[in-house]
Write a structure and sequence with these properties.
The protein is of the alpha+beta class and 291 residues long. The protein is globular. It starts with a strand and ends in a 5-residue tail after the last helix.
Length: 291
């Protein structure tokens, strides 16, 4: 399949702003709620959004995006216009463009936004190096806390520099660039379709496995909750975490009071990201873990 992309924003010299590029995309390698991902070559992929998008200013009353609202493109534009465009927390985007022509496919994607991104390894490639679930691994607690620490670092980077919270913290939204080694410190966030401005507004959250379920929940407690759910998936296994409630899952941690407390306080919505980071640091220092 062949497309023509008009580049709106770019970093580096491979793609110039206000230029058209004819690109061959021979293979679809992924699909999510909002877009398709195609391979360009051994180094690059292109994410094409499924729907025509508008770049609304974030409406603080809406937890979820409006129809045709594209929070991800808006975030990447803000990123490329900021002093933080070169960082070690988020995927290094190459260009943002609009599809102007497409052939060999029945998909109606003309005039939709697209992102040109470096090809990455799934974080699953890293996880598969460990004996899973981590509760059966002699270094399991150390691994899972370092994993949590990395996700917290990424979230605090977004909080402090862009005043946003990521509501879609789950394992398949993190990757490692192919040029980097498979280790925890190289994990990057790649998906920003469900970011929201930090504010003092409380929201109602419906049942979703990475979210607390309830009314009038302050946004600052949601990221620690989600990070702990992902950590429990690594520590106990996905089926156990998704098929049982938090009280049941936390029973597996009770033999280690301090380790249990990290998760219990987060899942009880008592910790923001900085508080969670501090608890993890104290536990790792006490137990002489590498961090």
């Amino acid at each position: 399949m062949e497309i023509i992309v008009y580049v709106l924003y770019s970093i580096g010299n491979n793609f110039k702003i206000n230029h058209y590029y004819k690109i061959n995309i021979p293979k679809k390698i992924g699909e999510g709620t909002y877009g398709y991902v195609y391979s360009i070559n051994k180094d690059l992929v292109i994410k094409i959004f499924k729907n025509y998008s508008e770049l609304y200013e974030n409406d603080e009353t809406n937890l979820l995006p409006k129809k045709n609202e594209n929070r991800e493109v808006k975030f990447f534009i803000d990123l490329l216009n900021s002093k933080y465009k070169n960082n070690h927390h988020l995927i290094n985007i190459n260009a943002i463009g609009i599809i102007k022509y497409i052939n060999g496919n029945n998909l109606k994607l003309v005039n939709n936004y697209c992102l040109i991104l470096p090809k990455c390894n799934s974080v699953t490639n890293l996880i598969n190096l460990w004996k899973m679930p981590l509760i059966n691994n002699k270094d399991g607690k150390e691994i899972v806390l370092n994993f949590m620490k990395r996700l917290i670092e990424i979230e605090l980077f977004l909080n402090k520099n862009f005043n946003i919270t990521n509501l879609d913290i789950k394992l398949n939204n993190y990757m490692i660039q192919k040029s980097k080694k498979l280790n925890i410190d190289n994990i990057l966030a790649i998906d920003f379709g469900l970011v929201i401005q930090n504010n003092n507004i409380k929201y109602d959250f419906k049942k979703y496995y990475i979210w607390p379920c309830g009314q009038d929940i302050n946004i600052k407690y949601v990221s620690p909750y989600s990070i702990c759910i992902n950590a429990l998936i690594l520590f106990l296994g996905e089926n156990k975490v998704k098929n049982n409630d938090n009280i049941y899952n936390l029973n597996y941690l009770k033999k280690d009071k301090d380790f249990y407390n990290i998760f219990n306080q987060s899942l009880s919505l008592k910790l923001n990201c900085e508080n969670l980071q501090k608890l993890i640091h104290e536990y790792m220092k006490k137990n002489k873990f590498k961090h």
